[in-house]
Amino acid sequence: ITPGARTLVEGTAIYNLADLKPEISTQENTVNISQSEYQASDFPALVEKKNRWNLQFGSTPMNLTINAGAYKGNIDLGGLGLRNLNISDGASEVKLDFSAPNKEKMSFFSYKTGASNVNIQNLANANFSTFQFDSGAGNYTLDFGGTLQRDGSTVIQSGVSNLTLVIPARLNATVKVEGGLSNIHFPDSWKKNGNIYTQSGIGPAMTIIIEMGVGNVQVTD
Question: pTM of the predicted model, to two decimals?
Fold first, then answer.
């Protein structure tokens, strides 16, 4: 997924089995692109399945929902006009980037994932009020690079996982760690008061709450 469409959404789909053909429906100002649920046993044996979507979105203000199972995704939502964003997937490998500032104030950003590898870049550019990240076991990198235009809050709820937070040194940030985490690493420049870590920066502030029973948290700049 990339920006650059002249309309709300455009793109192509490459597939080699009829059951993989995307279904497109529109109703008033809503566009739905979907694919029937299937299992590997539904398809002929010894057939290499091709199922690749290449979509572009325009800058029209929108609410965007992405529901996916196990997949590999390369997503750039930079410079769009997102008001709300909801992503839900299963065991997946995803790189998500906000390469340019979001043109709208995003009220809510939700990302729910199973046992997966997810790397989200330039979160400050998303311009969200609240970001909720829920995950199972996996490896996750949340990079708060970009330009923070207003105060924001992030809540991270994760299972047994490895979590890396990239928080630039210039960012006003507070991180509260809840749960029985034993492996927590912050740069020496951060101040610690109980389970609350703070970094003084410039401009708006980001508040991050981490709820994780067991796992590893690494904070870098």
Answer: 0.93
